[in-house]
Here is the input.
Amino acid sequence: MLKKFVSCLAAAAAATSLAAFAPGASAQTEIKIPIKVNATTLRGIMTQEFGDQLAKATGNRYKTTIYPGGQLYDGDKAAKAVQLGNVQMTNEPNSAFTAYTKNADLMELPFGFADAEAFQEFLHGPRSDLVRKDLEKAGFHVVTFLDEGPFVIATKEVLIKGPADFKGQVIRTSGHPVVVDGLKGMGASTVKIPLNEVYSALQQGTISGVYTTFDAYVNEKMYEVAPNVMIIPSYGAYFWVANKAWFDALPEADRKLIDSLANKLAKKYDKDVWAASDEHVATVKKAGGKISDPAKDPAARTAFREAMAKTYDKMREKFGKEPVDAILASK
Here is the structure.
């Protein structure tokens, strides 16, 4: 009888121990979020705000630990770590997820979306499901998408105003096929160089221009060596994802809360990242640089789209006619 009692007691203790570590238990759940950018950037601040709001809303049942500056993982390594369950979340660029969905590249179709508003409608509407479904199948839960903000092509000597201005330029890109194909179609050649090597490559003349976000361009002070800036209507997104198995094991109320908090912050982020564009323009002009913005010039936009026609046809073959034409139809 005593042996049976002890056995029951041990079983109860084991059950209690397991319950303490279950996602729905009152014990604190840690969410590790590695990101490439520093904590003081707009994305770093927003990610920390998410952690603070989640802790407050749940009575500190969740603790968010952010690993900024790539100190744990970044880019595709951060995406892989989430997929494997080594960390719970990340919000890295779409380029980090091309191994899981070819549609990640579709977002950066140059001169595709009419403007930032059209792109954000895509991100937060049903048309982004073609990306979301691929990621869900790969083991991710898509928490939300973030607009990366304005992209630029900055050059050392020539201010790009029309397609012919690309001829002979050597442009650094992050390697997105849709961007590379489009630039080559307009007469440029492209190279893939890490962002932290771009300044010296421009300075030494290894490249004549760079394709990157306006935020990165200003933060890296590239206006000192490539002062001619075209704000290109090409868009990218940060994919805020969680490990699907981990997320699905959370209580339903917590899952809804996490998605809700992140989506509200994402929409605020989308506004803030574009609001910063005016400050970036001022910084470039103060340093003696020049700006062109073909998205605000219907004739220039038409000329670039005509120059991109062959690239659009290739993208229709790769991604399908409907999704490409839907982007080009945005107004």
